[in-house]
Here is the input.
Amino acid sequence: MNNGFTPRNMHCENANEIYLVGRNSLFQAGAVYKTTDLGDTWQIYNTGIDCDLFDIHFLNDSVALISGDHGLVLRWNKNSFATEILDITPDKIHVDIYPNPGVDMQTIVIHSPGSDKLCINLKSIFGSQVKEVFKGEIHKGMNKIKNSIADLPVGIYLFEIEFGDRNKLVYKIEKR
Here is the structure.
């Protein structure tokens, strides 16, 4: 398997045909990996789309739907390797936090339709402030913010994410 690939999900068509979807940091894009020899060799299909792919479901012998971040849905043909974007919603804010649950470090990925002020606070399950994770400007598109949770006790926490003065989102995370 090539370096730089982070698999998110696996689909087994049969004992010899296995697909992995995820992100390849070498391509800076979502990718599908296919093996027909139980993982000895892999074919790589680069989508060319700067995203993380999360799941793959085959509709028939050749066509699959692949879901990704930011509301992305792809129709992918394994025979022609054609990729078609079915749905992407760039006018909305999308947030992904991984790994969740986490142990040491978590990544907060925010896809924003435009530049905006952003404030991220980590709070206890009771709502008291644990720490300010980020305060500043984000740009249009994908923004990644790393957050160390290594020094926190095991438990449930909340990320309170404020975009400008119009949106406030709360996400539950778990520290293991």
The longest strand covers residues 129-138.
